[in-house]
Amino acid sequence: MDLNSSPPNSNSNTAIPVVSTFSSPFENPPSAQDGPNGWTRKPISLWPGMYQSPVTNALWDARSKIFERFFLDPPKDAPPQSELLNKTPAQSRTTILYNFSSDNILREQYRDPWNEVRIGKLLEDLDALAGTISVKHCTDDDSTTRPLLLVTASVDKIVLKKPISVDIDLKIVGAVIWVGRSSIEIQLEVTQSSKEGFDNSDSVVLSANFIFVARDSKTGKAAPVNRISPETEREKLLFEEAEARNNLRKRKRGGGDKREFENGEVNRLETLLAEGRIFCDMPALADRDSILLRDTCLENSLICQPQQRNIHGRIFGGFLMHRAFELAFSTAYAFAGLVPCFLEVDHVDFLKPVDVGDFLRFKSCVLYTEVNPDQPLINIEVVAHVTRPELRSSEVSNTFYFTFTVRPEAKAKKNGFRILNVVPATEEEARHIVDRMDSQALLSTKGFGK
Q1: For 132-191, how does the pLDDT look when each residue is reduced to its tens digit (9 = 90+)?
Q2: Above 80 in pLDDT, residue 252?
C-alpha cells in the first residue's frame, strides 16, 4: 500500500489510501529495529481497532509508531509532558482515500442495498480518523513522557448534502482547527466528485466537527494539550467559528439558554396531549393520521466485545454512532413504510464511557414528524443505556437525534403516501418533544453545529 507523494516537509498531510482487507497488514516477522525481544511483544494483529473497518486498518498502518507507544509500551511512572508545543493545522491534517472505482472488494464492504455508501460505517470511520488526528496534534515525540488519554466528547451536527455513491472514489480530509486548555476540535470534510479527480469545488458531500478531550493517563484528570497556530485566512476563520461554538457550549452548560414553561408553552403541551388522550381513552375515535410515540419504539441490545475497543480499552465512539444509526434507520423504515433517506445527525454528547463487557441497550422512537409534502421529515431519537445487571444500574451513555426523509423515487411509486403525526401519551413525553423542537430551532438560529 503506497502512500501518495507529497511536497517536502508536508508528511502530515500525506494521503492514506484505504484498501479492502480481511487480514491484518502487520503480520510480518519483527525487523532488526525490534530487537531480540521482538517476538515477545503483544502481536500487533491483536491491537485494538483492528476489527473495525478497512479505514481503521489503514490508520493503524500509517501511524503505527504513535499507537505502538500508546498501547504496547506505555512508560511506567513517566512524567507528563513538561512543555506545550505550538502546532499548525497542517501538522495534523490527514487524508484518507477510498478507491471505490478500482477496488471491488472495498466497494462491497461499504455498499448498502441502494448502491450508496453505508452511512453508519462512514460515521464510524469519521470517529477513527478524528482520533488519529487528535493523537497527531497531542503527541510531543518524546518517549520519556506519558501519553495522554484522548476521548470523544461530542460531535457537532453532521449534515449529508447529497447521496454518496459507492461507485465513485471518496476522500476524507481532517485537521485540528481549534484547541482549548484540554479540548480539541477536529473538522472533517467528505468529498466526492462525479468526475475522476477531486478538483470539483462543489464536491463536499458531508462535513463533521468532533470534540476530543485530553485526560492524564495516570490521574484521569483534565490535561493541557499542545497549542494551535492557524496560518492561512481560512484556518483563522475556522478557529474563530470554533471559538464561538465553544463559548455557546459553555453558556448552555451554565443554563444560559434554559427556559421555563410559560402560558404559551402550556398551551403547546395541551395541544400535543389532546390527541394522545383520545388514543389512550377512546382509541376507536382517534385520528387515523396520528400514532402514539410509544407505538413507534424499537430496541436492541448487545454485549460490548474486545474487538470494538479503542487504544484505551474502551468502546469506539464511532461504533456507538454506527449502531445507533442502524437502529434509527430501521425505526424510520418501519414507521414510513418506505426506504428512508438520511439527512442529518444532531449534536451528540458522549456522557459516559462504555467499557468492554458492558451490556449496552439502544432504545429508539419517532420523536416527532414534520409533514411537508415535498420533503416530509422523520425525527428519530436513539438513547444508549449502559446496563450493569450485577449492580442493578442503568445509565445513559449517549442520546442521538437523527433526521430522515423518504426517497423521492420510492414516494413517487406509492400513491397516497402520507407521513403520520406522532403524539405523546404523557406530559413527560410532550415536554420532551417541545424541548427538543425548541432546542433544534435555537441551534439553527444561532448556527451552532453547522
Answers
A1: 899 889 887 766 677 788 888 999 889 999 899 999 999 999 999 999 999 999 999 999
A2: no
In order, the DSSP letters of 335-372 are HHSS-EEEEEE--EEB-S--BTT-EEEEEEEEEEEE--
**Contact yes or no for 379/441 (Cβ under 8 A):** no
Q: Is 363 exposed, middle or buried (0-12, 13-18, 19+ CB in 10 A)?
A: middle
Question: How far apart are the C-alpha atoms of 120 and 118, rounded to whole Å?
Answer: 6
Residue 228 phi/psi, 5-degree rounding, is: -125, 140
pTM over 0.90: no
Q: How many Å from the N-terminal Cα to the C-terminal Cα in the chain?
A: 35
Select from 227, 161, 215, 150 the least CA-distant residue to 191: 161
**C-alpha angle with apex 331: 326 to 167, nearest 5 degrees?**
45
Q: Write out pLDDT tens, residues 93-121.
A: 999 999 999 999 889 989 999 999 999 99
Rounded-to-integer distance, Cα 206 and Cα 245, Å = 19
Contact criterion met (CB below 8 Å) for 292 and 423: yes
Report how far residue 284's alpha carbon sits from residue 263's, in angstroms, rounded to the nearest whole number. 31
Q: How many residues does the chain have?
A: 450
Neighbours of 426 (CB within 10 A): 14
Task: Tell me 416's DSSP state.
Answer: T
